[in-house]
Structure formats: C-alpha cells, structure tokens
Design goal:
Oligomer: single chain
Distance between the termini: 49 Å
Strand order of the largest sheet: 2-1-3-4-5
Number of helices: 20
Structural class: alpha/beta
Largest sheet: 5 strands, parallel
Strand content: 5-15%
Number of strands: 14
Length: about 475
C-alpha cells in the first residue's frame, strides 16, 4: 500500500482529499503546513507528497528539496502558467489546478506513483549504475539507458556505431567512449567524412607515398595511422566513398593500413567509433554502402534519441546553454520567461540540440532585458498557446485539462506525446465540435490546428465545420 502525505491548510479540502485517497486504497497522513509536516513526519517514508502551493509560512515548493527523491505534486488555486512552470522548474513532478474533480486527482496520483515505482525498479535492475557523462546533459530514461551502455562498452575494444538524427550530439558520445577507455591518454582523431572532398578522402585517411598522384610532393601519414593506439571517430560514415570503404575494411579486419602508392602495409591498433544519421542497412541493400563493412562496424549500436523524445531534459539543456552564453557574452544571468519555457517544450526541434543551441545563443545576443528571455527572441516557428488575462488576480489561466467524453481516464502507464494527444483528441471530438471549439480546447490557433491536420493527415470534418 503506497503512503501519501497531504499538506493543505484548508481542513475541508484536506479531509475530502484524504477520504478520496483512502477509498482508493492509499495510506494517507496529513499536515496543515510545511513546518508541521517536517516536524511530525519523516518525508522520505512517503511514496508521494501532495501539497498546496500557498501555505502558512513556507510555500509547498519547499517540500521538493526537503523530501529529496520523493515526488511532490503541487496543488494551486492560482492556476497561472508562471506558478506552474516555476513549480515544475523547482522539481515538482506535476501540478494540478483547483478545483479538480476526483477522477483527475486519482489519475494523477496513479501516474506519478506508477512512474516512480517503475524508475526505482529500473535502477534496481540495472547492472551498472547510471551517472552523468561529461559534456552531456539529461536525466530522462532514454539518456540514462544511453549512459549505462556507454559505461559498459567504453572499456572494451569493440567497434561502435552511433546512430541519431542531425544535431543530437553524436561526437559527444564518441568522446565519452574514448575518455572512459584505456586509450584516453592519447588524442582521439575525429574525421567528418562529409566535409572532405571525395578525391582527397583516401589520402587523408590512409596516407600516401611521394609521387603517388599529382600533387603528392612528399610522403604523408594518414589519419588512421595518427590514431594508432587511440580512437578514430568517423562522423557521417555513410558518406564515405566505396573505394575508401574497402581500405577501411582492411584496417578493421587485418589491423593494418597501406598508404596510397605504397607496396608495404603498416600495423595499426585503432578503435573505431562511427556515426551516421542514415540507415546503413538500407544503404547496404541498395549497394550504396559495403555490406561487409556494415556488419563489421555494427558490433555495438548506440541510438541517440532526438530532443523531442527527451522530456524535461529540454529545459535543463536550455537553461545550461543560457547560463553558458550569458557568461561568454558578459551578460547578467538571464532566465527564460514562462512563455519561452512553453515554446521550448512544445516545439519539436527538428535540428535537435544544435538548433536549440542556436536559438538560445541568438536570444542572448538580441536580448535587451536584464532579467529574462522572451519567446519572441527565440524566433521559433510555433503558434503559442494564448492565455486570457484574469482580471481578478492578474494571472493567466492555464489551458483546460481535457478528458475525452465517454472515455475512461487515461491509463497512468500510458505516456502520450503531444502529437499523439493532439491526434487522439481531434479524432474523438471533431464530430461534435467546430474547428473554433477544437482549437480553443487544444489551446492553439485555428491556423495551427489546420497545419497540424495537414501534417498528421487528419482530414477536416465538413459536418463539424458547418456548425
């Protein structure tokens, strides 16, 4: 039975919430303030803490640090984007706006506890403890898995193929593999195969003898020989010409390199790390890449996730880059505005980390504010959710949390992406809602709704449009 602590100063809300959770088979304790919660209970004994944001004395967000690894779900009657973003940035696992219905609360509790249990089980089953890689930022599950695989394969001599979209940081993975290997005392040799002209790539990699071809005025060792005893990183290996692929295969199979124009081979001890954004298996089937070389380099494959699949890592990366560029440009420590945070987490980032880096750098250069970066400075092609101003408390209303009609609450183990949620909601409601209603419920403009329909291939419902 999971244990939950409720920290809420309103006795009626506190009692109603305790009864609701007890009916759902949770063991519940309660306190009216942070001071009483810490004085009366050991916070780490609980599986979840549900706390109001505004309490007598210390705010509910103070429990995030005090509770260490225990997830904290924040409740707030001040349902502003700013308070929600600030709570999440401080480490809250989620927030829920008052007034909430019972199903919404129970679903949120199941989801949070379910994810926490799954994460603990994952850590328990992991043979190698995950820890951060130098130069790489992120604590999402996909990145933790990547860190573990790097730690396992780095000390070996195995050839590694790093696959990922452009801009995901494949060279950082190669450098981590080198730095955690016995070869780290020697310099890693990095080569971008797409950046060297096809006529020069063989001589650059494998070297040449004097007079081997026009312009070969002297004997020259290639980059493969320079990587002897170290690591050779070949970025965009899919761009390597077939003739050069044959020579590289010999290096891997025989452990020797023969310069162009030479009759003698030289023994080399090179550990190869290759990277590509292309499907090498498909290229091999189409005879555009040597199949024997593909099988030779695909000993261990590491998959780098795109930025859009890394969850809260996006904010961690953005804030780290922001701090870095502020320092480099001698500017005060800027913060991201709530609208900028929303834009960053909503955008799909086709250019991945490199595109995010460019956006943050551009924003810091152009920023004239001394406190925060606005979403306009990011210059992201995105229709932002518009928030209407609330005259009563001068805050912004958050988008409605939508539960599709005639449907059970979403399975807490199901973690839908924004794209999946959009498609599901449109398909379930387009027969009963007009385009204007759909756009308002989703928190986007009608133009954005139309563009996403085109992207996902969801035809516009004429009957609903006519309403």
């Amino acid at each position: 039975m999971s244990k939950i602590l409720i920290v809420e100063d309103e006795p009626i809300i506190r009692t109603a919430l305790r009864r609701l959770l007890e009916r759902n088979k949770y063991e519940v304790n309660e306190a009216p303030s942070v001071k009483e919660a810490t004085g009366k209970f050991t916070l780490t004994d609980f599986d979840l803490i549900i706390s109001d944001l505004r309490l007598p004395g210390a705010p509910g967000t103070d429990l995030i640090k005090l509770a260490e690894q225990v997830p904290v779900l924040i409740m707030t009657s001040y349902a502003s984007l700013r308070s929600a973003v600030d709570s999440m940035r401080m480490g809250a696992v989620d927030y829920i706006a008052k007034p909430f219905d019972h199903e919404e609360m129970v679903t949120a509790v199941k989801r949070v506890i379910g994810k926490a249990n799954a994460a603990n089980q994952h850590k328990h089953n992991s043979a190698t403890a995950s820890h951060a890689i130098a130069g790489m930022i992120g604590s999402s599950d996909v990145m933790q898995d990547l860190y573990n695989r790097i730690h396992k394969v780095a000390p070996t001599k195995a050839t590694v193929l790093v696959h990922g979209e452009t801009g995901t940081g494949k060279e950082l993975v190669a450098r981590a593999l080198h730095e955690e290997s016995p070869r780290r005392e020697k310099t890693m040799i990095s080569v971008n195969c797409a950046a060297i002209p096809e006529t020069l790539i063989e001589s650059e990699l494998f070297g040449h003898e004097k007079g081997a071809f026009t312009g070969a005025a002297s004997t020259r060792d290639g980059l493969v020989a320079a990587a002897d005893g170290s690591t050779l990183f070949l970025d965009e290996i899919g761009e390597l010409p077939l003739e050069a692929q044959a020579r590289l295969l010999r290096v891997l199979q025989e452990g020797e390199v023969r310069p162009i124009g030479s009759v003698e081979s030289r023994k080399v001890d090179v550990r190869l790390v290759a990277a590509t954004h292309r499907d090498l298996r498909k290229l091999a089937q189409e005879k555009q890449f040597r199949e024997d070389l593909y099988f030779r380099i695909n000993v261990v494959q590491l998959e780098l996730p795109p930025l859009r699949d890394r969850g809260k890592d996006i904010i961690s990366l953005a804030e780290s880059l922001l701090q870095r560029f502020c320092h480099e440009m001698g500017k005060p420590n800027l913060k991201l505005s709530p609208e900028a945070v929303q834009a960053i987490t909503t955008y799909t980032w086709p250019g991945n980390v490199r595109e995010l880096e460019n956006a943050i750098q551009r924003a810091v250069i152009l920023c004239e504010d001394t406190q925060e970066i606005s979403h306009e400075l990011l210059d992201i092609d995105l229709d932002l959710v518009r928030f209407e101003e609330d005259d009563e408390d001068d805050t912004h209303r958050s988008p409605e949390r939508i539960q599709p009609r005639g449907r059970a609450p979403q399975d807490p183990s199901e973690d839908l992406s924004l794209e999946d949620y959009f498609q599901r909601f449109v398909l379930e409601h387009q027969d009963t809602m007009s385009e204007t209603e759909l756009a308002r419920k989703l928190g986007v403009s009608r133009k954005c709704l139309w563009e996403r329909r085109q992207r996902f291939g969801i035809p516009r419902n004429k009957a609903a449009t006519a309403k």
